Amino acid sequence: MSEKIVVAGVSVDTRHWIGGRRVASAGTFTDVSPVDGRVLGEIARGGPLEVEAAVAAAREAFPAWAATSRAERARILHAVADGVEKRLEELAIVETNDNGALLRSHRRGVMPRVAHNFRFFADWLLTLEHEDFETRGHTNHVSWDPAGPSVLITPWNAPLMLATWKVAPALAAGNTVILKPAEWTPLTASLLADIAAEAGLPAGVLNVVQGYGSEIGDALTSHPDVRRISFTGSVPTAKRIAASVAPNLTPLSLELGGKSPLLVFADADLDLAVDLAVEQYDNAGQVCLAATRFLVEDSVAEEFTRRFVEKAGALRQGDPRDEATDIGPNIHPRQLEKIDGFVRRAVAAGARVVIGGHRKDGQYYAPTLLTEVAQDSEIVQEEVFGPVLTLQTFTDEDEAVRLANDTRFGLAATLATGDPERAARVTERLVAGTVWVNCFFVRDLQAPFGGSRQSGVGREGGSWSFDFYCDLKNTVTAPNGWNSHG
Description:
Blueprint (H helix, E strand, L loop, with lengths): L3 E4 L2 E4 L2 E3 L2 E3 L3 E6 L6 E7 L2 H20 L2 H17 L1 H12 L3 H25 L5 E3 L2 E9 L3 E4 L5 H14 L4 E4 L6 H12 L7 E3 L4 H9 L6 E5 L2 H11 L6 E4 L5 E4 L5 H9 L14 E5 H16 L19 H16 L3 E4 L12 E4 L6 H4 L6 E7 L2 H9 L6 E5 L3 H10 L4 E4 L18 E2 L4 H8 E8 L9
Parallel strand pairs: 9-10, 9-12, 10-11, 12-13, 14-15, 14-19, 15-18, 17-18, 19-20
Antiparallel strand pairs: 1-2, 3-4, 5-6, 7-8, 8-22, 13-21, 16-17
């Protein structure tokens, strides 16, 4: 196979990055752009041999990287951020062609956030400490010891940003990393390897292995030399990973799916509520945090729906490389078929299509809103991961909370209300890892992030990331412990 491909003028190496060098595989898989169905290239298809090499490289590099001072680790992570900023336009162009998200979003928000991920955890590392405390005169000192080689398995909906949410804290913590990007969007992970090498990250500290599903995943997650595994993706895959790590008791961080609610009360600013609602079509609905279930107080439901339909109808769907486009394609023909199947089954079960409800040319699905849906229906209970939203009504707070909490998920919730006391009452009762009140998708990296119920296990962000990627140690020193007894 060709070792490099050119995507919109940007050269991307299609081989793995293992131990500080490029490594080919005997087999390949085809990477196709969702924008226009064009083949981007053939990508090295890894398996157990590549996994073994990557884990060995990470294991070999770990002692020196773990012993590297915090200040030096932080310096290198800042250099990686510099490299991201230097190549921001290239990263944005490649990622848009690879996953179909808006180029304007990659330029203005996503890729700057990638650089910020490295800078934040570099800076947080330098201030990470607990105050010593005493127990009956004994001093307790808490420290964070690097855990070891870490496997990071990342999704396709925001490939580089979600990867670096994991890569940055893992490296800052002193761990070495084996990154496995999603097979549908492998390209910017390869560019990240180049950037990290140019920034001076030692060989073997960051490794990137590409491959398909269980062909590579099982070998990664079951490896006895892996000390941490962080995964973002589906519940079924997470269950498989959990079974795979059980013999080794490898600690897991799982950020999984969601079926999050948007609760709109009659006292809300309806224009704001509608803006929040239309925002749920971001990235063609391929956002795990999206509030896909609208729960609207019945007295304002008709007006809310009217305004929503008007605003959603003004969205422009098309080529994500066009600055005027609001909604791009869905990632893959298989995902598009899945989305369409959800809608067809919902309509057959009695749902009413308010807008959308159909496929368009290529890999595009019309922004859709369904009403007259039962609480126990598939469309309300299961994650679609596409531009498909449902609307139900409620009469009071109790019913709103009951409906909001009545799924197996608990990733996020969004609340629109003009009453701060109501906001406090309702948010206290919601089952969710993150609750937004009169806003959406605001995430500070120092805050804990993760899901409840089947939306995940554990939290990352700020000190929580270091708690996961490190082995915490408490050293207890006796009073007058330094007296000589010679």
